[in-house]
Every structure is written in structure tokens, then in C-alpha cells.
Amino acid sequence: MNLKKTKINGAYFIQHQSFEDERGLFYELIEKDILNDVGSPLIDKVNISESKYGVLRGLHYQVQQPQVKFISCLKGQVIDFAVDIRQDSESFGQVIQYDLREENAETLYLPKGIAHGFISLAKTSVLLYLVSGIYNKDLERGVNYKSLNLDLPIEPTLINSRDDNWPNFDQAEYY
Question: What whole-number distance in Å separates Cα of residue 105 and Cα of residue 16?
Fold first, then answer.
């Protein structure tokens, strides 16, 4: 596995070594050494998200009980993006975005205090989330994607009202 630092302190883009033969493809998504290298706590749960073409989700985060996330694309393609909302971070306000595809063995690691979202670029995109921390709806917050300088290849075709009405970054509740 290859860990690449991003513009956000503590966030990494992980390129996995994959093995392909006539049967298909195999790669290790996560291992104890990677958890230690990035300083991640143990995984509490695993989530799967399925989205249609043009769906934009996010940017989501939690205050008081922030979560750590490992995000991988199992099917389709997404532009995955995040913004640092940690006021005391040297990378506060920095935005990253990565093209995650099913044919690439890649994962985005986001530490606590990072707002996350994505837009689906395939008929169906399936994301796998390995999460440390418990989801608490009352603590969930968001940042409106329009307030960030994202380079999206398409305009979203579907955003739920909650995500469309999150405050702009400069009005968001920070971690």
C-alpha cells in the first residue's frame, strides 16, 4: 500500500497493490499497519452507499463526536471531496477531491474534523465506508458544496433538500 499525503493535514490517499489474473482482482483494503500509520482508531462499523448518476451527497460531518472514515469505490465512479473544518488545523478550509473508480484500488482516509461528500459519475456508484465513531443524527452538520471551489465535471442532477440547504463554509459550525 502506498500512503500519499493530501493538502489536508492527517488525510491520506491510499493506493493499494492489486493482484489480477484470469479469475479477477484481489487487494487488501485495510490492515492493522495502515491503521497505525495514519493514527486511526479501530473500525466501529462498515457502511455502503449506492448512488445514481449525478447524485451529490454531502458534505457531512459531526461535531462533538466526529468520525474517522476510509472511503473506497466498489462500483462505478465518483468525485470524492472533503474540506477541513478543524479551526486549529494548519489546513483549515483546504479542499481536496479525488476521482475514485471501481477499477482502481484506492481509498481516501479522512481523520476527525473533515466534512465529506461526493458526486456519482456512473449509472450506479457504490461506496464502502469503514468508520470509526458512532453516527448521531443530532450532531450531524454539513457544508454546502456550492460554497467551495470544487472542480466538478458535471452539475449535480439530484441533491436532497438537507444537503442543498447546508450553510456555506464561512457560516458552518466548525470542529
Answer: 5
Listed residue (36, 26, 29) closest to 14, CA to CA: 29
In the chain, the domains with their CATH numbers are 2-171 (2.60.120.10)
Active site residue 174: no
Q: Clarify whether 116 is annotated catalytic.
A: no
How many CB atoms are located within 10 Å of the residue 128 CB?
A: 16
Contact call for residues 154 and 52 (beta carbons, < 8 A): no
Task: Give which of 9, 5, 6 is closest to 96, Cα–Cα.
Answer: 6
For the question of whether the overall pTM of this predicted structure is more than 0.85, the answer is yes
pLDDT lower than 50: segments of the chain: none
Question: Helix H segments across the chain?
Answer: 32-38, 161-164
Sheet holding 95-101, edge to edge: 95-101, 77-84, 114-120, 56-62, 140-142
pLDDT at 145: 97
Catalytic residue among 60, 61, 145, 174: 60
